[in-house]
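Example protein
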Amino acid sequence: MRIVIFCHSLVSDWNHGNAHFLRGVVAELLDRGHEVSVHEPRDGWSRRNLLADAGPQALNAFDAAFPWARGVVKEYGSSGPDLDLALEDADLVIAHEWSDPPLVAALGRRRRAGRFALLFHDSHHRAVSAPHEMARFDLSGFDGVLAFGEVMRRLYLDREWVPRAWTWHEAADIRVFRPAADERPDDDLVWIGNWGDDERSEELRRFLLGPARRLRLSGSVHGVRYPRRARWAIRRSGLRYRGWLANHRAPEVFARHRVTVHVPRRPYARALPGIPTIRMFEALACGIPLVSAPWSDAEGLFRPGRDYLLARTEDEMVAQLRAVLEDDGLAQALRDSGLERILARHTCAHRVDELLTIADELGVRTEAGFAS
């Protein structure tokens, strides 16, 4: 099967968590013998910021970490991709939600005249938090949407944006995210995530910085778009701000810490029950104990109290972190159970299985190496 993906970026993960899951899906498809090409703008927002923040060596590090991407990633300029060339012999085409609306509309027009199946992949909260932005997308030519949670799937169908929709949760690429063999923790708490647009600033103060200060924990905060006031708050908490971290290096950072926390952005926690951030999948895959701020696991992805601990208030977060750090048996049980759940249900291999089933429903021949 020949799969063509259009996305904002596979190469850059600077404030662009969507790249994490797409990398794992592409790697899994390639390992199974499918032909994949990924098209992204050469001068996209995430890549520009990555180069400004970390320099060209960040792109070199991506090439070294993901050698399979050579020849798979196709960059295009301001005039857009050559769709005649990109879509030649395509069986399945996926456009990610951060693609430009004119490109999405053009793909829909090509679908009407072509033989491939066309899916829209939504892994963000804009459909709920900014529906006016989603209204810019013409999805009339699409076969359906891959929505990263059941609530999003229903939303697309209720608003009649697409004729069909499937729930397609994110997952961990266990080629990258796995427990470290020999690393021993030397710090207490780590948080890997971006500050963003004040979508969880208060939550980070209550469930990360406040508990760290009260427990006098050592540890680190990694991420981007932290304003000066946020960096000062981190310093006051006793943690250290480390800046941008390439996502493929997260496992080694997790391994140097005893516990991490999951703090969903406010739109996810309030309006999108059942959808954790991808950091939760990745952390559990690395075997680090995790304590989560409030979120509703409405789809039963994990087992609260076994795979992770839940804290509904700052006081509860303090108590849960203290319990993990003081009880080696509890910490080990969380490591084992969380990793077991990932391996059983939430790897990129599971999601590729689901994708191939969806493609089959759409009449796409899914044999590896097949091109229509």
